[in-house]
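Troubleshooting: if your tokenizer reports a length mismatch, compare your output against this known-good record of 326 residues.
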Amino acid sequence: MRILTGVQPSGKLHLGNYFSVIRKLVDYQNKSDLFCFVADLHALTTFSSAKNQTENTYDAVCDFLALGIDPDKCAFWIQSEVPEVTELTWYLSMSITVPKLELAHSYKDKVAKGIVPSGGLFFYPVLMAADILAFNSDKVPVGKDQKQHLEYARDIAEKFNSQYGETFKLPEPEIDEETAIVPGVDGAKMSKSYGNTINFFDDEKKLKKSVMGIVTDSAGVDESKDYEKSIIYAIHSLFLNDSAKKDLQSRFTNPGTGYGDLKKALLETVLDYFGPYRKEREKIAADPAYVRSVMKKGSDKARAASSQILDNVRGKLGIGISKVSV
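Known-good structure output:
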């Protein structure tokens, strides 16, 4: 079972990223044939500067390696280092219409907000389709908001197969309905765009500021607190087994513990849990030569896989003259 996923390098990772995506990827690589990439080309649709682009990509690679993505157990690479995918994007663009692309949520939402869309934003679904179809992916983990992009990939594959013969495997979405939405410090979904994140690779001072900034009600130390409505509990419980959850619940319901103490307990849990990952990340980030060698290994593996598909597509489209007999 080949599983493919890509993550944009859009800044520091937070608890929402970890519990909704990253922890699952580590599990996937132990049970499946995982293909995972840092989507630096997709990130160009929100480009700010070359410096930020480079730093965010490097940081994302270090983050994933530190958190357990093992290049010996999966294919892990940077999107732009596999040019076969961008070439395939052009070929696939012939199998989708402009009206269809105009219906893409990623395009319509930006236009509705008054943003002047670039051609890159318009063709975003085609590049994503190439990401998926270039590697014979069986399943693609997606959130509900990304499901349409996978449907586009399937539509493109079906049209190409119909025109030129069986070429692409039709990937299936893997949507985990049970994944809880991790709340941010304000109670809304944790998201960089909302500015409500807890970034577990921040230094301890910043991390403490984030945790201590979690919004609470006005219940005092000597009052019982409703853990079911508490952001602190919702986040802290993600780290705990059933027994530890019951212990935490009792601290909420039994008077004598203030929200400040409950926040400090959460901070301690975050630091303890991510402590080994934080140390590993420091070591990895300080060794650019190692990072480059790992990503070269990953891109070689990805290119070997995608070149087989690309050669087949070229042949069916009559691209190149190497096979012409005289």
